[in-house]
Amino acid sequence: MMPGKSVPGPVIPIRPASNEADDGLQFVSMYQKQPDIYPRAVKGWFAGWRWTFVWLTQLLFYGLPWVQWGGRQAVLFDLEAQRFYILGLVLYPQDLIFLAALLVLSALALFLFTAVAGRLWCGYTCPQTVYTEIFMWVERRIEGDRIARMRLDQAPWGAGKLARKSAKQATWLAIALFTGFSFVGYFTPIRELAAAVPALSVSPWNLFWILFYGAATYGNAGYLREQMCKYMCPYARFQSALIDKDSLIITYDSARGDPRGSRSRKASPAAQGMGDCIDCTLCVQVCPTGIDIRDGLQNECIGCAACIDVCDDVMDKMGYDRGLIRYSTENGVVNGWTRLQMFKRALRPRVLAYAAVLSAASFAFAASVALRSPFKFDVVKDRGALARIVDEGAVENVYRIQIMNRTEATQTFRVSVEGIDGLAVTAPQASAGPVSLASLVVSLRLPHNEAQPLRGTSTPVVFEVATLPIPGATPPGKPAVQRERSTFFVPR
To answer: H helices within 38-126, ranges in order?
Structure first.
């Protein structure tokens, strides 16, 4: 072997993979365009409930910013002033623990609902589902139902097609922009925002967020639709860890429905060796994510129950019993349980644990909000002089107290101190206006005789701030009291 030269290794030829059927291999391009989904309109019990929640959620979302409370917007997250108004509650950045608690409660509620009945949130109240439902309603009103939309998309461009497509896009944009405007109205007083928009005096940040949130609504509900649920939403991935064989999910009763096949209404499926499923594929046509529920539970299923409504309608026309596709549990379908038997299994250890934790957390959250003090204060010791000797050898420490009035009424406060015998307090009464701050200087003096045993030490003291009754208030109310620790320093 010559120095500096490598010995060639064995050559492994690269051959194209076999496409023979017996190989059991299937090649799927991850970059190919997904086929368009044209969901068919459906009516029924669950469709009615879905639209009920669409109306409830949107009336709340669009209407809440316009509600007034005590001369101000009832719900306003004023980031510039660093105050959050929620009805009669005023929160500051220091109160973000309540927001964290709300997120924890929401997660626990989601776990509980999923363990009991699957993806109820996704099927009825998720914003992606709600706005997709609204946008698809607009699409059907302008372009027609499933077959009409398919024909329109396949037709060459002309005046009629251009007019329909333009009307749909204009309506979508109007809904999206109004949604963005309403969203920003939670952070900027919406009445001021409504006056600024026609005057073209909207601030750059407000304009950015209106356009950004509007574009997100337009893109997600108008185009991404099922892609959000199938590929982007993490909930579809971890729902399998939350459900079990006793969770209510949308199921196809294969024992009753298979073998499938079309037949006359007068024909007996049992005589032909068939099940109740006539293989009409309507359950696939109404599915907003384009799946076939007859293939079993899939993570793309958002639990909207459109397939149940359309299948029940087909069963009625064929003269068969309803429930070929229904809300049921895996154990219920296998064992042929009644609805009562399945409901009894709902109170199983997992559900009881979620319910107990959620109830305890909800009670703790409600109690913490109810017992929240109407004010908060901080004590800062004068750093310029820790202590000084004043008249007749008395020792004086100076402090600055800042009081935050958390209510929307003017409050007056009294300051007292405890912790050292003989300690004298010089502090004026402080008043703080609605949702504002008050600052005052407090002087503590310890006579010479009492100070001598404490020379060279810092002794703990406790400041107490209490509210005074509001003049003319009926009833006068119980004073609120807060305490903060500090120290009193006696020099050598």
So the answer is: 45-63, 96-117, 120
Does pTM top 0.85 for this prediction?
no
Contact 166, 143 (CB under 8 A): no
Which single residue is written with the structure tokens 């504002």?
Answer: 436
* Cα separations in angstroms, 166 against 52, 153, 180, 391: 29, 13, 21, 86
Angle ∠(283,288,294) on CA atoms, nearest 5: 35
Count of residues making up the chain = 492
Q: Is 477 left (phi over 0), alpha (psi -120 to 50) or beta?
A: left
**Neighbouring residues of 483: CB distance < 8 A, sequence distance ≥ 6:** 462, 463, 464, 465
On the 0-12 / 13-18 / 19+ scale of CB atoms within 10 A, 31 is exposed
Distance CA 181, CA 206 (A): 9
Secondary structure element (H or E) that encloses residue 481, with its range: strand 481-490
Per-residue confidence in pLDDT tens, the chain, 492 aa: 445 555 555 555 555 544 444 455 555 555 556 788 999 999 999 999 999 999 999 999 999 999 999 889 999 999 888 889 988 888 888 888 888 899 999 999 999 999 998 888 999 999 999 999 999 999 999 999 999 999 999 999 999 999 999 999 999 999 999 999 999 999 999 999 999 999 999 999 999 999 999 999 999 999 999 888 888 888 877 877 888 899 999 999 999 999 999 999 888 888 888 999 999 999 999 999 999 999 988 888 999 999 999 999 999 999 999 999 999 998 998 888 888 888 888 888 889 999 999 999 999 999 998 888 888 899 998 877 888 888 888 999 999 999 999 888 889 999 999 989 889 998 888 889 888 889 999 999 999 888 888 988 899 999 999 998 866 554 556 788 999 999 999 988
Work out the end-to-end distance of the chain between its first and last CA atoms, rounded to an integer number of angstroms.
Answer: 89
